[in-house]
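hiii so um. not sure if this is the right channel but i have a protein structure encoded as tokens and i wanna go backwards to a sequence. like what aa goes where. can anyone help
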């Protein structure tokens, strides 16, 4: 992998992790175009995933600091009973949302990895599913809820677990599911981006384990330090831009444009993969 390929793939990871167009699907398409095997460049995969997490923390630092400052602190209303405050409930919702993807990662890891190696037919099909989800969420008008409940967090977590399929957008699936459940746009995008931090770090740890198991040469592949650094910086910068942009898009309810994009790219991917 040369520096230009690393720069482009890093930008793809940063942009598509937050935009509802599937980062795994676009990276699969990019790797196919550049004839790169991700399994032979695990260090690069780890680097861009860590960069994505850092971009989330930078853009949502205000929300992250709010959570940590209030974590386990009794609110004034609950002080007599030492009940859970808003920040602690938020963290519990994130933990609950992690349960489905954790089960998939532990018990269905081999199956998921086999799907990732099954070619672009799955990617194209899942991009079309993403287009359908975004379209449904755009036209649906459920009753609005004041806050994301624990049950809603679990259902949104189920959507995240299903989105391990390459081509099925994680952010698109979780945000669309939350909107269909009646959650407010303003809080949903932030919750969707914060809930993905633990799974991304978990995936990075798994990739690190695989890199150690494969040996240093297999893990690093043919990428130089310069290319690795450029890929990391590219993923971080474009991740920051995409995260901030996506929050504004969700608030304005403009997800239908991404539905059209996913439909076009998904159909084109299916056509090219079947030729």
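sure thing!! here u go:
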């Amino acid at each position: 992998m040369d520096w230009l390929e690393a720069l482009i793939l890093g930008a793809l990871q940063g942009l598509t992790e937050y935009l509802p167009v599937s980062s795994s699907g676009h990276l699969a398409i990019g790797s196919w175009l550049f004839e790169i095997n991700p399994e032979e460049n695990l260090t690069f995969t780890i680097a861009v995933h860590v960069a994505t997490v850092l971009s989330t923390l930078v853009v949502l630092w205000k929300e992250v600091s709010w959570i940590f400052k209030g974590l386990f602190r009794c609110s004034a209303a609950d002080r007599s009973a030492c009940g859970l405050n808003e920040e602690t409930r938020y963290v519990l919702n994130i933990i609950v949302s992690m349960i489905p993807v954790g089960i998939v990662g532990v018990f269905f890891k081999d199956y998921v990895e086999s799907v990732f190696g099954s070619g672009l037919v799955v990617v194209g099909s899942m991009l079309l599913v993403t287009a359908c989800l975004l379209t449904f969420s755009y036209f649906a008008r459920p009753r609005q809820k004041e806050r994301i409940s624990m049950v809603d967090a679990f259902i949104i977590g189920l959507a995240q677990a299903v989105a391990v399929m390459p081509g099925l957008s994680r952010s698109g699936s979780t945000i669309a599911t939350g909107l269909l459940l009646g959650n407010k746009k303003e809080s949903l995008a932030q919750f969707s981006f914060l809930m993905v931090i633990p799974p991304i770090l978990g995936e990075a740890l798994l990739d690190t384990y695989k890199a150690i198991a494969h040996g240093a040469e297999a893990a690093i592949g043919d990428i130089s330090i310069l290319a690795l650094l450029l890929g990391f910086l590219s993923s971080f910068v474009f991740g920051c831009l995409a995260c901030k942009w996506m929050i504004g898009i969700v608030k304005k309810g403009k997800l239908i444009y991404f539905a059209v994009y996913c439909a076009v790219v998904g159909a084109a991917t299916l056509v090219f993969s079947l030729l």
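oh and Residues 3-274 form one domain.
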